[in-house]
Amino acid sequence: MKKGKIIVPITIIAVIVLLVFSSGVLAGRNPFISTSAVSKALGGNWSVQNYYTGNNTMTEILIDSQGDVLVITQYSFPSSSLAQNFFYANSIGNIEQYGSNIISYYSHGLSESLYVLNGGKVYYISYVATASTSMPSISQLLSLIK
Q1: Model confidence over 73-121: pLDDT tens digits?
Q2: pLDDT number for residue 10
Q3: What CATH number does the domain containing 94 carry?
Q4: What are phi and psi of 23, to 5 degrees?
Q5: Distance between CA 74 and CA 21 in Å, rounded?
Q6: Is residue 87 part of a domain?
Q7: Cα–Cα distance between 46 and 111 in angstroms, integer?
Q8: What highest taxon heads this organism's lineage (predicted)?
Q9: HSE toward the beta carbon, residue 54, CA cutoff 13 A
Q10: Is the full-model pTM beyond 0.85?
Q11: Residue 132 and residue 141 in contact, taking contact as beta carbons nearer than 8 Å
Q12: How far apart are CA 130 and CA 66, in angstroms?
């Protein structure tokens, strides 16, 4: 009898955990950047593959009809100084002023990554292209977050 009394609560807890993780409770209802905005900025026909929200973060993963992948993460901070600290701690490549934003950009082969400091927010944008696709410019990537 004791064995059955232990297995039932464990089974119930396991089912609840599986339901929470598979039901989308942890994911936001709508992506924060629309597929039409991505298509307008980068061209192509984009669709959202995954969307996650967490502690002051939102991440969206998109793919286009050519197989290119775009990942955008938005980190929100209560102050611009905290955002700045995060940006400088995680920067990649050279840091430079680009318009009204401070960016850190890195490109290699068919992939590029960009950190953008914008007030109390930091954006991470990663683009991986197929061999038949040209890489977007920094201004095209920045247009995604405006």
Answers
A1: 999 999 999 999 999 999 988 899 998 899 999 998 899 999 999 999 9
A2: 47
A3: 3.40.1000.70
A4: -90, -10
A5: 22
A6: yes
A7: 17
A8: Archaea
A9: 8
A10: no
A11: no
A12: 7
Say how many C-beta atoms besides its own lie within 10 A of residue 104's C-beta.
21
The percentage of residues in the chain with a pLDDT greater than 90, rounded to a whole number, is 58
Query: Two tokens at 122?
Result: 């930091």
Q: What percent of the chain has pLDDT over 70?
A: 79
Closest to 138 in 3D by CA, of 105, 102, 108:
105
Query: In whole numbers, what is the pLDDT of the chain averaged over residues?
Result: 82
Residue 18 has pLDDT above 60, yes or no: no
Sequence-ordered alpha helix ranges (H) in the chain: 2-22, 35-42, 80-90, 138-143
> Does some domain include residue 135?
yes
Please state, in angstroms and rounded to a whole number, the distance separating the CA atoms of residues 31 and 50: 9
Query: Could you tell me if residue 7 is inside a domain?
Result: no
Asked, for residue 9, whether it belongs to a domain, the answer is: no
Structurally, how many domains does the chain consist of? Answer: 1
